[in-house]
DNA sequence: CGGATTAAGTTGTAGGATGATATGTATCAC
DNA sequence: GTGATACATATCATCCTACAACTTAATCCG
């Protein structure tokens, strides 16, 4: 009867695992908004862990706006609109369908980011964008460092928009994608693809230098579509869902 | 010497308050990436709370990818790119500058959402969008319920894109904005503004019915700009940052 | 000097106790 | 009979103690 979290997977701390389990229950509809969670003691018994562990897990879910705990009553599931944070389930990204959709979101954000950056960038922005470009096209282009530089390039563009929210969102989305395709990129960097990738970045940079929002947007869009293609992801067209 | 969190504010649980304090230290640069946090015992002494409270706070920060804890060594601040969640500081939204930027991000997301929805929606989507529209233009238009319906209208459009990430992000951004301007809307709903607002929604809906992405995008953009204006927020133009 | 062992420091988990809050039920007063 | 009050119960919130597990540094021994 004591599962001791044997079926939950990962090697993380117990609170993290309990939180992940409960989170899945909520996201999957097993626990609907308004539903009351088992008491802390019951969860403690169920998972074969101390109540402290359960409380740490519940603290995490509370911080995310997934549940609310009321003293003397219990903990209740909140509606999705009450969320206090956005998270992306990396497990879900193993499904190509989901990866396509995340790339689509990334394309929306980055195309506009590039346009805004072209309109708003200063010389200091161009300098840092160029530095990242140089780094990703230099000696590191065959190593993991080039991925860092690649993402830095994108973050610097987002920073040039002068909108920290855009920067935060783009950074987050890029990192989630990066963690999901990390292995594939490292395994076999193809010579031609790397050069094409760099070429696309150069075109984005040139549009930024020219201060041409439309050109920057188009170049970035083409790049994201191309980048997705290179990892086997086809962006859905407007007509496809 | 025991602050007992007297200067931290809010009436929330102690772990939440400790987490908020540490989070601010990290975001403000007081604690840089790579920096080691005080030990759990030190934090416990500093804030005058039990170690359990500190651990719950740390569990929250770990879940957010803000810190990593290593057994036997301590807890360390991670780089912003390692974040596992996006959060928006509601306190920061009291600054009009930040609100402008968040509205700008919202405009980016929603304009594209409307375009995609126009291209991809089915009859069931139109039905639920219409239902939300009816609700916000009916008897509830002068009450808080109209805000719920308003946001539901936007979420249903995002749902029609068939991209759950778009839906999640839009829902989140809308709710953060909503919580920050909640009081202002309730205090004094102006007759003309409500009618204008509904009119804008009707135009968006009509573009969706017509399956016209460009018209939907334009109508949504105009609406978001207008909605921001109605709460005293001017969206930055492309040239402004 | 190098390897093994021990000690110290820190996080991770368990278990117990008490305080605080919310709700339901029983009792009392009018 | 109805409303107010008191009490009991359930549950979360916090505190405390103890030990396990891990990491690093110090010490010991060949």
Structure description:
Two copies of one chain form a homodimer. With 241 residues, chain A is mainly alpha-helical. In chain A, 63% of the residues lie in helices and 3% in strands. Chain A contains nine helices and two strands; from the N terminus they run H-H-H-E-E-H-H-H-H-H-H. The first copy, chain A, has helices at residues 14-27, 40-47, 51-63, 96-120, 123-137, 145-160, 164-187, 191-209, 213-230; strands at residues 67-70, 74-77. Chain A has a two-stranded antiparallel ribbon with strand order 1-2. In chain A, a hairpin with a 3-residue loop joins strand 1 (67-70) and strand 2. In chain A, helix 5 packs antiparallel against helix 6 (145-160) and helix 8 (191-209) packs antiparallel against helix 9. The longest helix of chain A has 25 residues, at 96-120. Mean pLDDT of chain A is 88; it is low at 1-10. Chains A and B meet through helix 1, helix 3, helix 4 and helix 7 of A and helix 1, helix 3, helix 4 and helix 7 of B. Chain A binds a DNA duplex (30 and 30 nucleotides) through helix 3.
